[in-house]
Every structure is written in structure tokens, then in C-alpha cells.
Fold these 4 entries.
Entry 1:
Amino acid sequence: MQRSLLFGSLSSQPFPLRAVLHSSLSFISCNSSRFIPTRSLSEGQPRGEEKIKRNIPLPESTVPEFGDIATFMRLPLTRHDPNGLDACFIGIPMDNGTSLRSGTRHGPRAVRNESSIIGPYSRITGAAPFESLQVGDIGDVPVNPYNLHKTVDNICELYKRVLRAGCTPLGIGGDHTLSLGVLRALREVKGQPLAMIHVDAHADVSDTMFGEKICHGTSFRRAVEEGLIDPKKAFQIGLRGGGYGPDDYDWPLEQGFHMFPAHDLWYKSLVPLMADIRRELGSTQPVYLTFDIDAIDPSYCPGTGTPEIAGLTTAQALEVIRGTRGLNIVSADVVEVNPLYDVSGGTAITAANLLFEILCSLPGVKYKQR
Ligand SMILES: [Mn+2]
């Protein structure tokens, strides 16, 4: 496929591939459910019928956008209950996997607050997600701020419940350790390793940090080792910044990852790249989309824990997300939003809009003629 990519391409892999680890390792499951379901607003309403009354964001004519409870886009809240929903937003307010600046535990609330400004229909693309899908906000994962491993288990538990209800979970992070819990749930429920589109300044494939196997810089090495993702169907977009040596990118390339560093994407539209990825993955392969807000340049999104200069533009971010339309996205998230480092709210506004665009790109969303 691709033009001049430094690290690799879909059609030619410049590095020798080692044995694929996931073929010889069983994936790790997580603990059983301990969540208490609450009443669903859509209970008793069969899905798939046109007369169904779908959830819509609270209209501004009812209460102004700055008012009422800040669920995501002011959707109905059904705590920990995905029943009857086609897609749901889930907050994951954690930062105890963070290596530098803490504060992403405040990300979900900030993103929900800023999401109030987003209208339910995309005037630009014609997407009408709330006329197509039943969507809600199911609150936050009950994270444990004193125990990262229990937090990962709790993410996995709630995500399994959501997936088994036939609902597509859309996560609001929270540090990137959360992907390990998400992927363990996806692997178990979907019954196969996932394809992955990972947008990030960092590859997050360290073996350990401070001797720890689980933290926000190790998620995707663990995911390969545990057989959660198919590394040959893993695409990392926006990579940059300093490291400790050339090994940082060698390991994922040896596994078969496709890496697209930011400097190869500067000044370019990402529409052709996404077309290549869609061709490679097709329309049925289950895909996990995870978007670390630090993929975007810190001039747009300073509110994050480990910023790196010369990143993607917000326009390129939209091209990536809109370019996933047609893929079988089975879960997605926007992570590493740290509002303590951005008093303007711009980072959270960006994250909220990216999540809305992800919703618009999900399978089953209708587009109107503009
Ligand atoms: Mn990350």
C-alpha cells in the first residue's frame, strides 16, 4: 500500500517476524460479575423496531446546555446496566497506571461536562446516530484507586456484561492501562484475538516500568503475550517522542505491528491511510479502536499526562475516526484526558467530539443526505 513509511507497510514487512506469541499462549480471563443492575430506561422495548422510542440527548430547549446532570451528551443514565442499548458510554476514572502526571481520574467527568455542547446530528457528515441506535451512559467502572490490578479486573467484568448484552462499549479514560481490561473482556466474549487501531504518541509496549508488568506503558505488550490482539492486524498511528533506545519500536515490529510515526503523517491527509486499513481489515473482523489523546499535538490538547510535540492535528484525528466507518468496531475509547493541565477545557472538548464521531462511525448508523 503505502507511501514512504519509515517503519513498515501493510504489503511489505521490512523486519523478520518472530514466532507469533498469541498462538501458544492462552488468554487471561478475569473475575466473575459483582455488579448490581439497575432499571433500564429502555426495558421492555424490543430493539430493531422503527416505533421504538430511542434515547436522545436532553434538548437544550428543556434545560440549557450548562444545566442538569452531565452524563455523556446528556443521555439517560442506567448505572452498570447495558440492557436494551446498542452502544453505551462508560467512564473509567483512573490514573494509578500513570508514569508522569497524574490526574486522568478526572477525565471522564470533564469529558462528560464538555460533551453537553455537542448536537445530536452531524451537519458535516450527515450521521444521525440517535435515530439509528439506542445509546445511553452507564456510568463509571467502579475503579479501585489503591489497587491497579483490581481496577483492571473491574473494567474487564463490566465490559463483559456490556458485550454479552449486545452493546458496544465506548470508554472515556482514564489512563491507558484500561485497555488491558477492555481487551481481556473482548477476547473472551468475541472468542478471537482482536484487530486494533491504536492512535497514540507512544507504542505502550514496554515490558515493565519500575519493575511492574501492568501500567499505562505496557498494555499492548501484555495484550500480545496474552493472545488478546492479533499483532499482524494492529495499527499504531501518531508515534513520536524520545525513548531509551531503538528497541522501543523493534519489539512491536517483530510481532507484526504496522507503525505509522507522526513525522511520516505531517501535512498529509490520513484518508488514504484509513482506506488502506479498511481494505486490510474488511467489514467483519472485530476491531478495537483506542485513541490516546496525546496522539494529538499538545497545542490542541495539552491536558494529558505525557505530552509530545509535533503530533496529529484535530483534523487528522477526525479523518482517522471517520475513516473507521465500514469496519466492525466492537469497542472504542478515548483515553489519557487530564483536565488538570488544561483549564480551557479544550482537551476534554476534543475528546468529547472524538467520542461522538466514533459513535457516528459505528456499524448501523444511518447517514442522511446533506
Ligand atoms: Mn497510550
Entry 2:
Amino acid sequence: MVDTQNPIIEFKDAAVKRSHRVIWSHGNFSIPRGSVTAIVGTNGTGKTTMLAVELGILPLSQGTVRILDKPAGKANARIGYVPQNYTSAGESNITVFDFVMLGISANRWGFIPTTRRERDAVRHTLEFVQLTEQAQLRLNELSGGQRQRAAIAQALVNNPELLILDEPLANLDVASQNSVIELLARLNKEFGMTIQMVAHDLNVLLPVLTGAVYLLDGHPHYADMDNVLDSDLLTHLYGTKVEVITTPQGDMFVTHNSLIEPTTRIEHDTHSVDEAAHWHTPSSVSSIHSSSSVSLTDTNRVQNEESEGHHDF
Ligand SMILES: Nc1ncnc2c1ncn2[C@@H]1O[C@H](COP(=O)(O)OP(=O)(O)OP(=O)(O)O)[C@@H](O)[C@H]1O
Ligand SMILES: [Mg+2]
């Protein structure tokens, strides 16, 4: 249930620099509790940077970011984080069970034996992500989709209120993408978990997304899906002709297919700020995208803390 009165993430005039270069600025938006949002923008626009800011890993050069009613970095114990390309590098020789246990024990100093309660939490989480049978396999013996579910399990094992994922669908085939999306949908619907993920392909996510943060012209904005699904906005955002198609049945999908309407390629961010002024005004978070059935297109194809509101999935 999306609670628009109760933001889980709040950006106020936020700006960030890397190597003295402003990556994005004037971030003024709130993300509601209970939402499922995508962070979208072309490569290098600062999506991963945004997650680093939210986790307090990277300081702002201006403004504030509050998350779970605390300054960024102060509520990480209530946040599950799945980094970009997490399981493709390193740690491949450890068992799935031990890998998920790291979500509980990684920040401990020295050797402290795990408790039965912690082992039960790992088993329970593995069951939820449907990896019970693979618990004793090594990570490098899993398929890409299974590895991504193991990474999600590690982030979930502490019952976070907010789950943040950086490109969780990258390099997965359609079936594996769908199994990850189904998992995220269950976490949101059954346990009220708020989910934020960096994504490139909106289509596969349309059935679950309630909104998106889009990085346009070096400024991040948040809008609900009804406002994001705008052909002109997405065309400017992706720098290539994008159409939002609604079928007679009411299904919607986004297409990058230049055959639908031949166009010249649009260079990213060539429009003036005046031209795009209506995209840079704070959006009204009003209705929530309610499309329950969305067509796919193949055209282009953090730590243990007792706190209220924890979900026991
Ligand atoms: N450690 C770093 N030091 C300096 N600059 C960096 C660092 N990491 C990233 N950048 C720069 O910050 C900008 C944003 O990078 P970021 O990784 O946030 O982009 P992204 O939107 O996540 O891209 P992608 O879609 O490729 O993952 C890029 O221009 C990048 O070169
Ligand atoms: Mg990135």
C-alpha cells in the first residue's frame, strides 16, 4: 500500500560531486513508503551514485537526503542493499547458505559462532527466494538468476523495511527476470516492503512499478508511473525515440522500435531547460499506475536491529 503522506526517502535541494564534477543537482522529491520505484537514466547519469548517497557512502555537496526519517547513512540497519553486478565478482566459492549468513555476520569483529536463530533466519530467507535445495551449492555453481536471488536473500535476511537494488535484472534471461520481479512484488504486496531499484528496461517492471526517479539534464525528479509513461519525456530521457503504446485492451508498453515511427536519433539532453520546464517542476504524486496486465515487447531488446515495522517474511 503506497503511503504518499509518509515519505521513506526525502531529497531537499540535493547535489553531489565526484572528482569535483557535479553529477546531479537540485534533487527535490520524496518517495512514498510502500512504493516500488525505478531509478532511470542513461549510463553515467548518476544512478549508482544516488544509491551511494542514500546509504551515506558518498556525501552531498549541497542539500540534504533523509531516509527512514534519519540522515542518509544513519538507518542502514533497516535497509537491504544489493549492489550492481554483486555476485558476478568474487565470493564465488562460498556456499549459498554462508553467503546469505554474511548479511547477518559480515560486520562482526573476530569469530563469533552463529546462533540457531540466525541459521533459522537464513533457512527461512532461502525458502522465500526458492533456493532451499541449492543451500549447500557454491555460488559459482548457480545460474545467473539463482545468484541474483541469493544476493537478494543476503539483503533480506535482516528483515529490512527498504530494499535497494542496483540493476537487479541485468544479464538475466526473461524467465529469470520474471522470477526476480515476482519476488520483489511479493515483498511489496505481502510484507509492505518499499523497493527502489535501478533499471534500464521499464517494460518488464511495469506491472510492479508505482513510480520512478528519472535523471534528466543532471537533475533527479520523482513522478508516479502515469506521469513517467510519457513518450516525449522518455524520448528525452533515453536520447532515442520512445513510444508509449496502449493496446485496445488497455495494456501499456514502452517501445524503442524506430520502425514504428522512423526518426532521427535525438542527442541526449539537447533540449533547453525552458523547453523541458514542465518536466523540471515538482510532479504531483497523485494517482498510482494501476495497469495490472502489461505487454512485454522484444523490440530492443545492512545489519540486525530490532525495530517497529519489521516484516517477518
Ligand atoms: N569512484 C568514482 N570517482 C569519480 N567519479 C566517479 C566514480 N564512480 C563514478 N564516477 C562518475 O560519476 C558519474 C556517475 O556514475 P554512476 O556509476 O553513478 O552512473 P550510473 O548512472 O550508475 O551508470 P550505469 O548505468 O553505467 O551503471 C559517471 O560520470 C562516473 O564516471
Ligand atoms: Mg550504475
Entry 3:
Amino acid sequence: MSTTAPCIISADWLLPITSEPIRDGAVLVRHGAISAYGALDAVRGVAPPDVQIDHQDRAILMPGFVNAHTHLELTCYHGQLQRAPLWDWFDKLIPIRRESGAEEREAQGIHRAVEMCLAAGVTTVGDITRTGASIETLRSSPIRKVCFLELISGASQPPSAFEELVAMFKRLQTNLNKDTSLFANRLTLGISPHAPYTVRLTEIAACMDLARDRQIPLTIHLLETQEESDWLRGHGGTLQAILESRGLATGDQQPTDIDAWYTQTKALDSGGGALLAHLNYAGDADIQRVAASDASVVWCPRAHDYFGHRDHPWQRFIEAGVNVCIGTDSLASNETLSVLDELRFVAAQEPTCDPSLLLRCGTINAARGLQMSDQIGAIELCKRADLVAIDRDDAAPDEAAANVIHGSGAVSATWIDGQSVFQKR
Ligand SMILES: [Zn+2]
């Protein structure tokens, strides 16, 4: 089948996410975009007479999953680090990343990670890269991605200051603009000031201004640990000692309170739409403050469990109207890079949770968090034909969303721009 010829992909159930499920549904793909969807007969009626139909037998067809928070360059460390509090985990991770040959191992790990994502029906990732090395590997891979270039003030490797981040970003963007290779247009560059305690306050504010002015996706780790929460709220605590002993102190003074931090960094100012990673230790005031902004929150359920954090307040964020996304974090603190595995993990912990809500967190919400909801995250007209077929599980409820979440059906096929990128053998 020619990749540019229109084609129909059909299945027992179509689950568009932003509209009602359709039994015996189909999607018409033209030039990589969704040009019609609905009941198979209706879609066939608007397609060319000789259109090819790719029927996914006993399957549910839905938009590809969007993983809003990962670090693919850590894939090669899978299984090497024990479950532990974050700081102890960092202490083990940092030395192994400095061993000889690490760069090559990490690059190979990224190739493997992309294969794992596609096999799990993940069609877009929000990937954070410490030095930009993963961007080179990812730009020639078929997965759609937002590559966030990470800033740590005073880091031993660049970017270690805001000016350096801007110079690297411009250089990468210029190269990307000239890149006519097959998958170059599936890469969007973003920036990521790492966290409040590793980036100078003035540099976080500069990143927020840049992202807002240039409409660049931005993500930042925030309120990830109890120690960070205490520090941001001006409660003494142990973070300063943790940072100093690891050479991570930025020289900034401890914030007097978190409201001052929000104000000075402009993290929640309108027009920014920052993607806030984790917020494990958010209180009611933080939730209300985020809800009044256009920021999104991404939480990583299994990594959250891995690091032994307290219960995540994700449902309180949703009740407050916040856009909540799902991420996997890296394979150095997780078992798979599957968003579906994350959602099933949450459902196993909270069986009464609405399956449709969970699926939105792993598709359209995550797309919005990456500032891509105009292109991906749902089966809607003119969106890219990024799709996944999941085997229907006869032992699970018949309703499509519940069948995906409460069943154990595997991903049987994945498409990006209507092109097959994974097919279960
Ligand atoms: Zn992270």
C-alpha cells in the first residue's frame, strides 16, 4: 500500500476519546491526517471507490498514547537501580552516567526505547534530554516527540546557564529548519529548567519569559519530594544540606515562601502553559493556584510508587479543573514505557476510577500538556492519524474504554501519520 494513497483503518470499536465510542467504526486517512471517521459504512461512502481497508479484527481503535514525561536517555539503566528515595537514586545514577562508554550505551538505549514506545502504542513522547544528545538520535526515528533541552545552573556539562541554553536551542532549531529528512517534522524543540533547587531563580524566570514569548513548550520538575516542598515553603528542612553535599547548590537563597517563588519565576503567569512535572507534594493552595493558571500537571504513577512518595493528589487537581497528563518517567525507575500500563496500574489501585477519564489523561490531556492538542491526542477531523489498535478482551466489560482499561488486551498495531510503525506478529 502506498503511504500517500488514502486508506481506511477499521475495528470493532472506534474510541475517539473526545466523542462517543462507535461500534464497527473506521478512520479514513489522507496525507497522514484524519479526513473522516465514524461508522465503517459511512466512512466508506466518502472514500475513493478503490480505497484499501485495513481491518483490525477483534480490536479497539483509538488515538495513540502520549507520554508527557520521560527521559529516554536513561533507558540503558533499566533494572540497575534499586527502589529508593529520589536522592539515594540520584547518587547511584550520576556515577554510572559518568562511566566510559555511557554516551554510546545511552544512544543505543534510545533506539530501543523508541521500539518499546511504538510497541506500546505510544505515538508521541515529551522527552527531557540533559545535553541534547538524544535529539540527534530521535530526529531520525519515526516517533513524534517534543525534545526538552534541560538546563541545570552550573552543571558540569552544557547547558549550564540560560545564555548557553538559548545558544544551543537556536543552533538545534536552525539545523532542524534545514532538515529535510523523513521524520524531521515530527520533532518539536522545548526547554526544561530542571527544578527550583537546581536552576537559579532568575534563570527559571528567563526560561518562562522565553517560552511564553516564543510559544516554546516548557516543562519543569516541581514539588517532587518532601524536602523540596519544605525548602520552597521556607521551612528549613534538609534540602540545602542534600544539595551542598552533592555540589548542586545554585547559590540562590532559600525562598521565603512558595508564593514568592511562583511570583518571581512567573511559572504560572498566563500565556505560559508550563508543564509541571510531578507536584507530588502539592497542597490545596498549590492546587488552586495551578487551577487559576494555564499550566498542566504530569504525574508518573509507577515511578511515583517506585520512589515511595505519599499518595498523589491527581484527582484533586482534576476536580479543580487542572489539565492532568500521564508520563512514565524513565526506565531507570520504571518497568515499561507504556502509558497503557500506567493507566491500568492506576485502575488497579482505584477500581472505581472512570476509564474514560484515565484514557483522556494518557491522550488528549497529555497532548495539551505538550502544546500539541491541535494536532494529536484524539480522533478528530484534520488531526494527524496517530492511532493504536488494542485487542478486545472478552473477559472485560464490553464498553470500549472499560475494556481497554480493565481488560488485558495487548497493543496489536500502531500508526503515525497513518503509516504503520508497529504490527504485532
Ligand atoms: Zn523527570
Entry 4:
Amino acid sequence: MSSVDLTTMAPILEALEAIPRSAERCIAQYADGETLVDYVVSWSDWADDIAWAQTVLAAWGVSAGDFVVVISTGHEAALYGPIIDALNSLGATVCPLEPAEFEIGRAGMFFRRFTIAAVIGLDSTLGPALVREGLLESGLRFMLARPEAAVLAAELDVAQGVVTALGPALALTCPDNGLAHVNGSAWIQSASGRAELSSRPIRHESLSALDVSGALDAGGRPECCSLGRSLGRLIAPS
Ligand SMILES: [Zn+2]
């Protein structure tokens, strides 16, 4: 029995399950150069993304009882929603923060009251304030930073990787060597070896030949572990 069964949410969730729903869960956006492109994320896509994120986060060592800070905003739900759902599925407690400096008070409450195992989504606005307050100095087992905060994260003595969007795909680095991975059942790298991404037929919306080379270095190996398709090393924008 999951803990949610013990709450007043149970009848609400049951009713939600019984309501007919469309295949589409939400509309998201990815950046194609200067242009923002809408695309559809289906319920099936969402479930796949949760399952994959769960595999990667378990590889990083997340397990039941961990407290994990996630720094994200609502409009990033297509990227961070599956991460939050995956953490819940693993039995971790999500401590949510927004990438804004005014969150430092709430952050202090989380870090002082709980032993925070990991920070996911370290950003370049709240992140420096967390460092200034000394909140990231002890207890953390790992951190997944946004590319723009990778330099900040590198100054911290903690195992770390990167979390970002590669086009419409969630990309996470693996614990082994910092290479970017996307869900290999949903996305495929172009056969030419260039840093292009296309959706596999399992995805609700067909997307092809998305150029993600600006976010990756050229030296990545095609495969490095079993966590998904490896695309190369993620780099911070200059
Ligand atoms: Zn790997």
C-alpha cells in the first residue's frame, strides 16, 4: 500500500483515474535556435520519462527515505515533472524550490531540518545564494546541475552531473563519467554520428533531426552504460 492510500487524496485519485482522458498530457516547448517549438507530451511519454528518470536516479543512489531538493519552475514541468514523480516512486521526499533568490529562506529550512541527499536542478540564481549560505557544504551525496551552474557546482566537493533539456528530451549525466544520456527507448541519435536527435515511434509526436550539438561537446563515446542513449559530454553555454 502506498502512503497516499492513507490520505484523503485516495478517493480523488480514484475518481481521476475513472475520468476518460485524451492521449495528450501537456504541451511543452523546446528551443530550436531562437525559436520556441510546441510539442505534445502524451501520458505514455510521461510514464516512459518517469521510468527512465527512476532508473538513472537509482543509479545515482537515490532510495527510500532520502530527502532530495529539486530546483525548478512550473513551466519546466515537462522536464522536471518526471524527475519529481520518479523521486516519489523511489520513496524519496521531494523538497521543491524555485530557481529564484527569494527561495533562500525556504531552502534554509529544508537544509537545516533534513539531511538533504541530493540537489537536482542547481541554477545560477538560487545556486550562488545556497553556496553563500554554506548550505551545500556537507551531507550531499550528489548533485545534478543545470549547464549554466556547472561551473558553480564544480567548486563543491560532491559527486555531480548535469540535468538539462536536449531539444524536447530530458538529458541526465550518468554517475560514471559525466556523459549525457537520454531515454534510448524514446530518442535516437542520428546515424551519421552528428549530435542530432530524433524521436522513436513510441513517442506521441514525431520529431526528427533536432540539432543538439550546441549543448554537447564532440568527444563523447556513443555508449558508456545501460542508462540510455549516450550523446556526449554536456557543456555549459559560454
Ligand atoms: Zn553512462
